[in-house]
Amino acid sequence: MPSKNISAKTGGRQAAKARTRPPAKTGGARRGKASGGAAGRPLLYKTARAMQDKIDEYFTQRVGKFPVFNGGQPVFDKYGKAVFEEVPPTVAGLALFLGFADRTGLYEYKARAEFSDTVKKAVTRIERYAEEAVLTRDKPTGAIFWLKNHGWTAEEHTSLAVTEPLNEAELKQIMAERLDDPGANPADATE
Q1: What is the 3-state secondary structure (H, E, C) of 102-131?
Q2: What pLDDT does residue 98 have?
Q3: How far is it between the farthest Cα atoms of the chain?
Q4: Exposure of 180 in the CB half-sphere (CA atoms within 13 A)
Q5: What is the enclosing helix (H) or strand (E) of 158?
Q6: First to last CA, the chain
Q7: Partners of 69 in beta bridges
Q8: How big is the CA angle at 89 (ends 54 and 47), to the nearest 5 degrees?
Q9: What span, in angstroms and rounded, lies between the C-alpha atoms of 150 and 163?
Q10: Cα(32)–Cα(41) distance, rounded to whole angstroms?
Q11: Among 147, 60, 61, 51, which Cα is nearest to 99's?
Q12: For residue 90, which of 35, 44, 150, 157 has the smallest C-alpha distance?
């Protein structure tokens, strides 16, 4: 009998703990109107056209070269030319400009069929900027990093095609030629 009381007491404490714990987080996508659920926050954009207009505004007003100001006055270099700052497009910058708390909100819209192409085109415009930076910048390291994180790869492929196998006499001749060449690497002759 005592063992039943102990287990009953233990079971009672565990049941009480279970009732007071907050619900576990599932880690899945947020359920709401933006992700297809019935409840949640309302959509920020009702149509893809409205979202596209705001995306175009981001690229025209927030991306490019802008004059630098200090205390409301333009900054000039030692030659008297205005100093400009380049502001590149970013996915996070676009998401914030569109009113999302982070990139996740933007990608939730990408999952909706009616907004998918709109979001893909916007991200592709940002990708194009990174591609151009790789080709035109002296130090494109950041752009290369961004591209690798978005599915691009930097791989070299080498292929060697042998049309006919060498016979022993031809192989010996090639080895002798390489050994006679003072600039040749002897290790190459054995490969």
Answers
A1: CHHHHHHHHCCHHHHHHHHHHHHHHHHHHH
A2: 96
A3: 97
A4: 6
A5: none
A6: 83
A7: 74
A8: 20
A9: 39
A10: 6
A11: 51
A12: 150
Q: What is the CA radius of gyration of the chain?
A: 32
Tokens 């359920």 appear where? Answer: 31
Partners of residue 87 on adjacent β-strands: 64
pLDDT band at 160 (very low <50, low <70, confident <90, very high): low
Q: What is the pLDDT of residues 62-117, one digit of tens each?
A: 888 889 999 999 999 999 999 998 888 999 999 999 999 999 999 999 999 999 99
- pLDDT value at 35 more than 90: no
Q: Which two tokens stand for residue 55?
A: 């995306």
pTM for this entry:
0.53
Tokens of 28: 């899945």
User: Looking at 64-131, which runs of residues are DSSP E strands?
Assistant: 64-67, 69-70, 73-74, 84-87
Instruction: Give 65's contacts (C-beta < 8 A, 6+ positions apart).
Output: 84, 85, 86, 87
